[in-house]
Design a protein that fits this description.
Radius of gyration: 31 Å
Oligomer: single chain
Distance between the termini: 63 Å
Number of domains: 2
Number of strands: 0
Helix content: 55-70%
Order of helices and strands: HHHHH
Number of helices: 5
Largest sheet: none
Strand content: under 5%
Shape: elongated
């Protein structure tokens, strides 16, 4: 709840009242890990339904103008599929970005932790560098 309070206090986030209904629905429908029940079920002894589920079940029973309702339901389902697809793509992009940042940070740490070879300029004793003097001389 503190994150919601912080979100609502930011002057640029004036749309919090539009998302609070979804937030409450999500909180009421999150399962408790101990009881495996939702808070809504524990209070009311029945599971809450989203608008989409409620509309779909009322269509099966035959309430209202079915042609308008079916069109609305198809449109909502189509929009929901598009939104889920976009959300998955967005999450995949974010995941790959975080993976690459993590891997780059690790590779920088690994490179920094490796001991660097010391260059020895007076290495006449070293058989590796006796013949070729164009490359840096590495201590033996």
């Amino acid at each position: 709840m503190q994150s919601v309070r912080v979100y609502a206090e930011v002057p640029l986030q004036q749309d919090w009242d539009e998302i609070v209904e979804r937030l409450v629905f999500a909180m009421n429908n999150s399962q408790d890990t101990t009881r495996k029940e939702t808070p809504f079920f524990l209070v009311h002894r029945w599971e809450a339904q989203s608008t989409l589920k409620a509309m779909a079940s009322s269509l099966k029973r035959g309430f209202g103008s079915q042609s308008d309702a079916l069109t609305w339901s198809r449109d909502v389902n189509h929009q929901q599929e598009i939104e889920l697809k976009l959300a998955k793509e967005y999450q995949a992009v974010g995941k790959s970005r975080r993976e690459s940042e993590h891997n780059n940070a690790l590779s920088r740490q690994v490179k920094a932790s490796l001991p660097r070879p010391r260059v020895n300029e007076n290495s006449e004793d070293c058989p590796q560098n006796a013949e070729d003097t164009s490359e840096p001389i590495v201590a033996c």
